[in-house]
């Protein structure tokens, strides 16, 4: 399963927030992030970016943001998708250590079919460049990088 538009936008917000936390963040990264945030704030005012901005590496927070974006109706927003893709590309180009949190990075591959599912990553879990695969590609159950627990642990009695 490919990532949904809300998940891509949530990943872009996470990447932009993480890059913005670094002292080395460039103006072009800051501008692209501000553009995406402004677009979300004006079009989807009920969507709260603060939890992801506070902890950009948190996968549970990013998942909640993706759900909120989907509930707000972003699925047909091509302009928002374009702004998210632009931000991800800029972060990759200017803040390589932040842009590495891409989960699955496929570039110039050939295969009969592609199936992706159950990816949890704070870094690149799978990267394939210039690959030709006979048959189908199946990438599932990938866990890479530091994982935040989904909920705080319960106290023992």
From TrEMBL:
<protein>
    <submittedName>
        <fullName>Uncharacterized protein</fullName>
    </submittedName>
</protein>
């Amino acid at each position: 399963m490919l990532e949904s538009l809300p998940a891509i936008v949530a990943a872009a917000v996470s990447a932009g927030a993480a890059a913005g936390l670094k002292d080395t963040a460039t103006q072009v990264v800051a501008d692209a992030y501000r553009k995406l945030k402004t677009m979300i704030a004006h079009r989807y005012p009920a969507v709260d970016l603060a939890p992801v901005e506070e902890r950009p590496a948190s996968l549970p927070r990013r998942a909640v943001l993706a759900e909120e974006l989907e509930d707000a109706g972003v699925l047909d927003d091509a302009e928002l998708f374009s702004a998210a893709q632009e931000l991800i590309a800029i972060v990759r180009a200017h803040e390589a250590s932040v842009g590495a949190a891409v989960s699955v990075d496929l570039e110039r591959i050939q295969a009969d079919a592609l199936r992706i599912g159950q990816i949890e990553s704070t870094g690149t879990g799978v990267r394939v460049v210039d690959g030709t695969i006979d048959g189908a590609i199946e990438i599932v159950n990938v866990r890479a990088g530091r994982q935040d627990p989904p909920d705080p642990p319960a106290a023992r009695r």
